[in-house]
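2024-03-11 09:14:02 DEBUG pipeline.ingest accepted 1 chain
2024-03-11 09:14:02 DEBUG pipeline.ingest length=1284
2024-03-11 09:14:03 DEBUG pipeline.predict start
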Amino acid sequence: MSVLRLSGFLRKLPAEARRSSALLLTADSCGSCSRLRSSDRIPGWMYYRRHYAAIPKKSDRSKQLWERSQLIDVLEARIQQLQSDVILDVKHSKVEFLKLPHKEKRPPAGKSKKVQPGEKAEPPKAKQSSKKGAAQTSLSSQKTHGSRWSEKLDREKSDRTKKYTRLQKKFPKQVVNETVEAKSDTKQQTAKRSKGKKMLPGTSTKIIFPVKKSTPAVSKETVETAAAEKLSGEADVAEFKELYQIIDQCSLVETESVKKRDDSETQLSACCYLEACVYTGDVERAQRFLLLHHRNLSKRSVLTVRFYNTLMKMWAKKGALPQISKLFVMLAEAELKPDAGSYSAVLECMGRMPESSTNLIERCLEQMKEDGLCVDDVFSQCLFRLDERDMVLKAVRDGKPDYEPPTSAKSPQCSLTLVKDFYAQREDVRFPKMDFELAELQERFKQQLAVEQSNTITIDSVEAIKPVTENMTKMRKLLEVQYGHWQRSLLQALRESKQVLKKGRLRNWKTDLYPLLCVLHDEEYVKIMLQTLENLPPTGDSLVNLAKELGSRVYSTFCIQQKIQMVKKMSHIYNSYAELLAKDTESSNVLPRERWIELEAEMSAGPSLLSVEASWPHMLLVQLGCFLANLLVCELKIPSNILNPELDNKLIPILYHMYIFRNSRQIGFIKPHPILVKIQSDATVTKLTFDSYVMPMLCPPIPWTSPKSGAYLLTPTKLMRAVDGANQHQLLLEKCQNEDLHAVLDSLNQLGNCAWKINKPMLDIIISIFNDKGCDKLDIPPPLTEAPEIPRFNPHDQSYTIEEKAHLKQEIMKARKKYGEMHSLRMDALYKLSIANHMRDEIFWFPHNMDFRGRTYPCPPYLNHLGSDMTRCILLFAEGKPLGPTGLDWLKIHLVNLTGLKKRSSLAGRLEYANSIMDDILDSADNPLTGRGWWMSADEPWQCLACCKEIASAHRSPDHTEFISCFPVHQDGSCNGLQHYAALGRDVIGATSVNLMPCEEPQDVYSGVAQQVEEFRKRDAAKGLKTAIVLEGFINRKVVKQTVMTVVYGVTRYGGRLQIEKRLKEIDDFPKEYLWDASHYLVQQVFSSLKEMFTGTREIQNWLTESARLISKSGSTVEWVTPLGLPIVQPYHRSRSQLVRSNIQMLNVQISYDVHEKPDTMKQKNAFPPNFIHSLDSTHMMLTALYCYSAGVTFVSVHDCFWTHPITVDTMNKVCREQFVSLHNQPILQNLSEFLLQKYCSGSVGKTNKAFLEFNRMQQLLARVPETGDFDLQRVKDSTYFFS
């Protein structure tokens, strides 16, 4: 807003406001330079200086003199650097050398005459030092008093000289000089702007780097002739010029990339800092921060309109319109245009003013129109807190009494070909209801809201069931007392640290954590630190991981605290939304996402449900976490004689900061004291504390309506999972049109709305084994008391030989590794079983999100259906359905599938086998631990036992067709990755191998590969190959299965060899001395076999790999869009290190997600084929989920394994096959080719020959789609064993 417009704006102000705003109207403004003249009438915090530096106080006069002295040092160093170059005067094609006079050395700063304020500093005297030779000048280098700027300039000059020297060694000197001369025209303007350079009228300047000997002056024509003769032709000269341009261009691109990266990181961190200041009410700090950046042109580039809007909102709450007017002036100075958020703050402020002028509001609305905005933009683009929206609406209606905010227009339906019928043809469709009444769902919402508001939940550990001993009771009391001491110590230390930070002068906001330490109550920070201490492994953890955990917990708590203000509005919306799901309401053809959006539009008054503040960047979380970790290390202490009273009583730290080596890198490590480990181990803590998001939800999740809204009620959740700190996926999703993501969002909502319950009999059996030393055979981890004892010896003991010491050290490392693995597995099982035991009488839900490839995952990390065999067996559908005529048969077939037997048998053969072992099934169900134990030999023993119990109950029921079953039956894809490859290539042989072709019996691709490899082995054994002879009798399906399965997902020969070696180790009779040779031989044969069986697959895989290689070499990451419209980008960039300063240590954090770094070509090309196939299998799963929902079928998935009730298996199988055919009827590879050509080959081509050749090669490759075979996809619909 210009000052002229502001003047007209303020004329409408009331008298009191006009008097307080008159200060601004006296300021002169210039649009070209955007600065204010100084005036005594302008307030101190608005005072603006030409040099854009902070205003010195009278008490800082000595500091001012020091800064002036330092500035003179910098200028002198710059002048000396410029004088070290040779300035040429080019005139009439002749080159003459000019010498500039050298200034004399200024006396040291400490002995210089003091400069009084108001006086001009005396310029330093110059002192010449010259040497004979017209073309060579040497300067006596001179150091100022510790000036780091001078050293930096010297380093820049040295780097430039080294670069020139390298070019000189490779090319003739004349050509180098000629190239520099050829570039002089483009550098003239830069040289003219450089400080300290004197230019004569009518002359141009060039820089020639200093060399050891003087170079005689030669004309341009002479140089060109000599160069042409030396390099034998103009082509070589052009080649060198091209090389020189490439070097400069690469250097420029790298510099710009680093600048963009630094600016984006600084901008986000600065925004979070300012918002934290405003959130905590620290007005002075917020103003000081903004002015510090606004007054300095170099720092002003960080500021965006959002920074100014943040302060405007702060002043709007106070009704301070003059302060907002000042910020509008600053916006104009920064050459930024006010947006809808800016005018929202103005209108809110006017709405809060007791006397608001109608004329003033009308003038504001007119200015909005002049800036290309309208009132509707304020309500559609801005997010509001508390009563902000009401205040804005009040002000608008004062100017426009009949105004009504816009209601969100009905968004267009998804028009993608694959789901067009699903969305368009819904007149006769009624989506299924949940088996809950409306009042019950509303009560469950209240319970879940209470859990999330508390942010953490404490539950009983299943280990509490064990008998309590006297020592256990003693240690628990001891630990409870110590936690009380630690809580008080941390609280006091935190408050003292905050006082120190508060009093500190704001010199560098990047290291000022004070605002972030005020967004929560002090007790909340202490609670977070103690919770992290409880979860610390006995072997310790790296400081980086600990800092991430602490910072993330603070941020999560902060987000939940912000959303508490919108609880009332959310409750109203959810209570109405539950009517769509409850069974005692009318059925509907409206999707959950659509209903939630309708309700939000109807209840638009009040705060927005989305978060207003910016998300905290990863490095900021690490920095905050380091501060809290330092408090833990420094403040938590314990008496040294707490376990042994005979020792001296002194306080010792319970945590130690140390350094260890990992992969030849030294990292900081936090390790607990053995005393603490001993107490915690003996106490066998009976309570476990988790973050609220770890637990399953007690009510149906909020439906995903956008990339920012969905899943939990208050806990922030990302739609797309990513590495900590990576945001390119979220930005890509936010750029999409909403209708393009409808199918993806609706499929996630369908998966999340499936209700679950605990299989109590199975849970009780597992807990009993867990508390009875576990069982390795059944994958129940034993307690740490069963861990091997770690050997101890004195390394300085001379009785041990060097070999014995080395052996003992190796044994110690193995024992420690084993101990760490056992602890990790034990705690993982403890968490899962404890959560399941806590939820044993509850109905619960798993909200879902996805990874960057579109594969879906439950949000709760421990207890979910994607877990291990032990976890899956204790989960049942909450809603039961009768078995019907085929349900019991499907249960029996499912049981045989879980055993791993009869892989090559037909469904009828598997059913017959199940009926033949009914005695074993019933014995397993009745006597799981004391019977024959048939179930223990299955591939999935715990799920097998659960299925035995379900079959026994149905078998003994009066009518098994009416038996209500909640048991999920699985249908697994037959090597699903190869199925997609075979369908893409229409490969008949490959399609037959992976059951896309109808067959009477299932084709097992793993057995087929094993058989092919055996043929190769026999051939080589006949030739006398020793390895082939040794492998006789050892090649089977299990040995090759993992490698065959993962080849399609990009496994290399090296990785495949390790997989086969692991399988061979499990065979007791195999000679261990041949492990390497045999695995190396087998991996070659497996790859050869797959190449023969899947020719089309290899062609497609090679095309994808080479495409990704050329794309990443061009400097871009690989992107594509799935057939369901989901945008995908591979987040593989070159790693870089970033230093994080903290009191405890300097952290070196490795970052691999920086979008400003070059792509990692190796990862990009290796990952593209498997990631592309994963995106296809996720698309197939989502399509199946949508159409199963439309058919009223309960559906969940574990990637390519689909689950449903026994009675609906046939329906799900039909939908699954139809959607696979529908998916691959699309020209997937052709669409991918067109997208890649449009994305990467539609821009300008590089000027160099090499760049043009690479571009042309990439364009030709992307356009050359692999040819396909003649397999008929419709045959898949009749394939029984496609999914079985």
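2024-03-11 09:14:41 DEBUG pipeline.report Residues 1-60, 84-146, 172-237, 250-255 have pLDDT under 50 and may be disordered.
2024-03-11 09:14:41 DEBUG pipeline.predict end
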